[in-house]
Design a protein that fits this description.
Elements (H helix, E strand, L loop, with lengths): L1 H32 L5 H23 L2 H7 L2 H27 L2 H22 L6 H20 L5 H18 L6 H22 L12 H8 L1 H18 L2 H7 L2 H12 L7 H18 L1 H5 L8
Helix pairs in contact: 1-4, 1-10, 1-12, 2-4, 2-8, 2-10, 4-7, 4-8, 5-7, 5-12, 5-13, 6-13
């Protein structure tokens, strides 16, 4: 009976993780619909509307009362740095969604785990076995191949997204806060930054006169659209093993690649497809390794 209950929890958690990654990957279409506002304004709206949404989600989980006891100067410093990386990541992602560079954003999220592994080896003393070393060498070679031979791509997009998200993942290992609590602290920092930006720069939250009704609805729900996939992701992360969560991370870039080809009709060279495939397979060899060893099973913790 207990085993059956664990299997049910694992199935629900896996579904939540898959849905979270699909929603995050497909969100390019969401932000494209709000493109008339411009990337900077969309980021400000996304941040400022995410704050009350996160507060409601945290209250529903009963975590607000426990948050204060977990915060100190070190934690605040970590999440201040993380907030800076979110700005880079969200702004680049939204810019790429508006301007049709979705293949690049998908590549960025595929490269991000490799950046995290590299940072772990370089700064945290993580050990690099032969499989990981070979996989990282292949991925580095594929990125060089992209830069040298894929002239149709905006290389800054996948480098910015991959770098910011990979380092962000490393910072998350240093904090004692869970995913939602950490994001709330980061969103508070970001909200302060957005208010300062609106006061001292030409960026404005004014809505264009020709703004469509459906765009108004989407803008109002921008906070929910940002936070809901993260709530699903946090639930999955709390119930599934790290290896299973590692496999689920392929859903987001694969979703992005499919949307780029089927919806945006983005031109992609054979070189880019080959490089994407090499990166995908090399990363898969790292994440799927525990399953081939028979040490990890997708069950609830």
């Amino acid at each position: 009976m207990r085993k059956s209950a664990n299997a049910s929890v694992a199935a629900v958690a896996t579904l939540a993780g898959v849905c979270a990654n699909i929603l995050m990957g497909a969100s390019s279409l969401y932000w494209r619909e709000l493109g008339d506002l411009g990337p900077a304004a969309i980021v400000c709206y996304r941040v400022l509307l995410s704050l009350p949404t996160l507060l409601i989600a945290m209250a529903a989980y009963g975590q607000l009362s426990r948050l204060r006891s977990k915060i100190d100067l070190k934690v605040l410093g970590i999440h201040l740095a993380a907030a800076g990386l979110i700005v880079i990541n969200w702004t680049t992602f939204i810019w790429s969604a508006i301007h049709g560079h979705v293949v690049e954003s998908g590549l960025g999220y595929l490269i991000a785990p490799c950046v995290a592994i590299g940072v772990g080896v370089g700064f945290f003393g993580d050990k690099l076995d032969r499989v990981r070393a070979a996989a990282l060498a292949i991925i580095a070679g594929a990125v060089v191949l992209l830069i040298v031979r894929s002239g149709e791509l905006n290389h800054g997009v996948y480098l910015a997204i991959g770098g910011s998200w990979g380092i962000y993942a490393c910072l998350k290992k240093l904090t004692r806060l869970d995913a939602l609590s950490g994001l709330l602290v980061e969103t508070v920092f970001l909200s302060i930054g957005c208010i300062v930006l609106l006061m001292v720069s030409p960026v404005t939250l004014l809505i264009p006169e020709n703004f469509a009704y459906h765009s108004w609805v989407m803008l109002i729900l921008a906070g929910v659209a940002s936070v809901f996939p993260l709530v699903l992701f946090a639930y999955a992360a709390g119930k599934l093993s790290l290896s299973v969560m590692g496999l689920l991370q392929f859903v987001l870039p694969t979703t992005q690649f499919a949307i780029a080809l089927l919806v945006y009709r983005q031109d992609v060279s054979h070189n880019s497809v080959i490089a994407f495939g090499l990166i995908w397979l090399a990363l898969f060899s790292i994440v799927a390794r525990p399953f081939f060893r028979g040490k990890t099973h997708p069950q609830a913790r």
